[in-house]
Every structure is written in structure tokens, then in C-alpha cells.
């Protein structure tokens, strides 16, 4: 039933893994294998001659630029995490902006009204809907238990013809973690992530699509909103990030900037796993730059649908003891 290109319909036999059949969150967007490849798709169609890219982003977004031989220039962001536009985006050029942690939808709107050829990277903002006519990309596995998958909104009718990707060989960490837990499956996760590097642009695999169509998005979204709100109510007074956080946002994480040496390691020692966004930024920038501090000092606390307010209160308790 989920098999593709089967010439004769197969019936009977063993039963496959049964997943709920609901609806994808973005059924009408272009479905691809990764968001770096969604960027490649865009660049392939739009033929931009140069891209402006923030210092504060994931290095894999350079992959398509190297592949297609497109020159790029880094730009800085300010304390609001918005672009410092001390350059002009010329004719035939584009600017990539990350909707940081899903907190910058207002900036996305402003930017897309004031700058030509903006590409919005919503990899960290799954629940922020694309603005009409604005090229926007999403990465599914930052928000849900899938091994890959990306969505793309592009404001032209041109399309590339693509084969479907296959995800089953990079899926082990997702299935193992159900029996063994996240920690014992971590090595698989790292290996499977490596498998996403330098892949061709392909359409989203059937496996990823089927999983995405089974998710209860309202539940996931509401949990994130609730958890984020709780952390912000309890941490905003000590948070050195001073820009205004939207209150009803299904953010990716809660970012807490606080000057406290070794806090991240201590949290990790308490099994509260804090990611670094992004290790490459520490190589691209110097310690006097905001981007370096965002990568080095900010504690990115989980707020996702696995957790409720009791979990948030527990995490807050551990954190406060370490401060
Ligand atoms: C902001 C951001 N954009 C894009 C990507 C790339 O997404 P994908 O792995 O789906 O290509 C990442 C990280 O992987 C990211 O953190």
C-alpha cells in the first residue's frame, strides 16, 4: 500500500507498521529530502549570482553553494537576531535569513517587505507558516521523529523532476530509541546524520511522508507554546537575551543567555542535553562577536512535545540549582 511503482497491486502477506493517517502540516508545499537540498532547488531555479548568508547558521547551508559554484558573503546579525544590512542585495542576488528558534516571524515579515530576493530558512520554525510569495524552506526532523524531510515554498511555477529518496537506511536511531532510549541510540543518530551530507536533491521519501502524515500537529504545537511560555515566565528576568519573545510561539527551544561558566556541561551531566547552535559558528567568528557568544554561551532548553509543565518545572529546578 505504501509501495511505489508497484505494477500490480499486492494484497495479503504480512502487516506493515501501522501509523495514524492524518494530514501533513504543509501538504501543498514541495516535499524534498533535506532543507539544504531545498535551498539547492531554489538556487537551481532562481539562478542567483550570489547569496548573503548569516554567520549564525548551520554550515550545511553552504553545501548547495559549493555544489553550484555560487559565491556567498557572510553578514552579521544584531542583538534582536536581525540582519545588519550594511550592504545592498543587488539585482540577481539573494539574502538567506534564519527564523531563529521560531521567534523571529515579525522580522521575517519586515525583511520580506523591505529586501528583494529573501529566502527564509524556517528549519527552526516549523510552525511559522510561509508568507505569500516568499521563498521559504523547512526541515522536518528538527521538530519530529523523522530521519529527513523538508518542505519548500517557491514563488515560481518552475519545478525540477526528482526521484523519491529512500529513508530506511538512516532510520535506525528512531526505531532503536523506542526500545533502548535516546542515549543508547545516539551513535546511530550521529551516523545517520552523516548520511545526509552531500546527497542529491530528491523528493521526500514515502516513509518520511507517511510518518509526517500521522502526527498530531495541534498537540505538538500547543505543548511547545505552553512549555516555552512557562520557561519564559520563569527565566526572562535573568535572560541576557533582551529582544522581545513572542508569547504564543511554538518555538524550537527556549534560548537562555547567561554568563555562567560550564553551565552547559553541568546540565549535560544532569542528563539535560543542550545542543550547540552551531559548532561551525565558533570557527567562522571570533570571541568578540555576538554570533560567537550565541554559539558558545546560550543554553538552548528543550520545549518540545515530549514534555509537559511538570517536566519544565523539573528542568527549571535543576537549572536553578546550578546557577
Ligand atoms: C537553521 C538550519 N537550517 C538548515 C539546516 C539544514 O537542514 P537539513 O539537515 O534538513 O538540510 C540546519 C541544520 O541541519 C539548520 O540548523
Describe the protein in words.
The protein is an alpha/beta fold and 323 residues long. It has two domains: 30-212, 3-Layer(aba) Sandwich (Aspartate Aminotransferase, domain 2); 217-322, Aspartate Aminotransferase, domain 1 (Alpha-Beta Complex). It has eleven helices and nine strands. It has helices at 35-46, 63-68, 105-114, 172-180, 186-194, 206-212, 217-235, 263-269, 279-284, 290-296, 309-322, and strands at 30-32, 50-54, 72-75, 93-98, 118-121, 135-139, 150-153, 253-257, 298-302. Strands 1-7-6-5-4-2-3 form a seven-stranded mixed beta sheet, sandwiched between helices. A two-stranded antiparallel ribbon has the order 8-9. Helix 7 (217-235) packs parallel to helix 11.
Q: Topology of this structure?
A:
Layout (H helix, E strand, L loop, with lengths): L29 E3 L2 H12 L3 E5 L8 H6 L3 E4 L17 E6 L6 H10 L3 E4 L13 E5 L10 E4 L18 H9 L5 H9 L11 H7 L4 H19 L17 E5 L5 H7 L9 H6 L5 H7 L1 E5 L6 H14 L1
Parallel strand pairs: 2-3, 2-4, 4-5, 5-6
Antiparallel strand pairs: 1-7, 6-7, 8-9
Helix pairs in contact: 4-5, 7-11
The structure holds pyridoxal-5'-phosphate (PLP).
The site of pyridoxal-5'-phosphate has 14 residues, from α1.
Can you describe this structure in just a few lines?
The chain has helices spanning 35-46, 63-68, 105-114, 172-180, 186-194, 206-212, 217-235, 263-269, 279-284, 290-296, 309-322; strands at residues 30-32, 50-54, 72-75, 93-98, 118-121, 135-139, 150-153, 253-257, 298-302. It has 323 residues and is α/β, with parallel strands linked by helices. Helix 2 links the parallel strand 2 and strand 3 (72-75).
Amino acid at each position: 500500500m505504501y509501495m511505489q511503482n508497484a505494477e500490480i497491486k499486492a494484497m495479503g502477506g504480512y502487516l506493515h507498521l501501522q501509523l495514524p493517517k492524518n494530514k501533513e502540516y504543509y501538504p501543498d508545499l514541495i516535499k524534498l529530502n533535506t532543507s539544504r537540498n531545498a535551498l539547492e532547488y531554489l538556487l537551481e531555479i532562481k539562478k542567483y549570482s550570489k547569496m548573503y548568508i548569516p554567520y549564525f547558521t548551520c554550515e550545511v547551508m553552504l553545501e548547495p553553494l559549493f555544489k553550484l559554484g555560487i559565491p556567498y558573503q557572510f553578514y552579521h546579525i544584531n542583538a534582536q537576531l536581525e540582519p545588519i544590512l550594511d550592504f545592498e542585495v543587488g539585482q540577481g542576488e539573494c539574502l538567506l535569513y534564519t527564523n531563529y528558534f521560531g521567534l523571529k516571524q515579525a522580522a521575517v515579515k519586515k525583511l520580506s517587505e523591505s529586501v528583494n530576493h529573501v529566502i527564509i530558512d524556517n528549519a527552526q520554525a516549523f510552525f511559522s507558516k510561509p508568507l505569500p510569495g516568499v521563498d521559504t524552506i523547512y526541515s522536518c526532523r528538527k521538530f519530529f521523529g523523522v530521519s529527513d524531510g523538508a518542505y519548500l515554498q517557491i514563488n515560481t511555477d518552475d519545478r525540477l523532476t526528482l526521484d523519491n529518496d529512500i529513508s530506511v537506511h538512516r532510520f535506525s536511531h528512531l526505531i532503536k530509541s523506542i526500545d533502548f532510549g535516546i542515549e543508547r541510540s545516539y551513535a546511530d543518530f550521529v551516523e545517520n546524520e552523516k548520511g545526509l551530507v552531500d546527497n542529491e536533491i530528491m523528493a521526500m521519501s514515502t516513509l518520511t511522508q507517511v510518518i509526517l502524515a500521522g502526527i498530531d500537529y495541534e498537540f505538538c504545537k500547543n505543548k511547545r507554546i505552553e512549555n516555552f511560555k512557562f520557561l519564559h515566565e520563569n527565566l526572562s528576568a535573568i535572560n541576557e537575551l533582551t529582544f522581545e519573545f513572542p508569547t504564543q510561539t511554538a518555538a524550537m527551544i527556549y534560548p537562555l543567555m547567561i554568563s555562567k561558566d560550564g553551565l552547559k556541561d553541568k546540565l549535560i551531566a544532569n542528563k539535560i542535553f543542550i545542543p550547540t547552535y552551531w559548532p561551525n559558528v565558533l570557527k567562522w567568528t571570533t570571541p568578540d562577536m555576538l554570533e560567537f557568544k550565541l554559539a558558545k554561551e546560550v543554553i538552548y532548553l528543550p520545549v518540545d512535545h515530549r514534555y509537559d509543565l511538570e517536566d519544565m518545572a523539573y528542568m527549571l529546578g535543576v537549572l536553578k540549582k546550578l546557577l
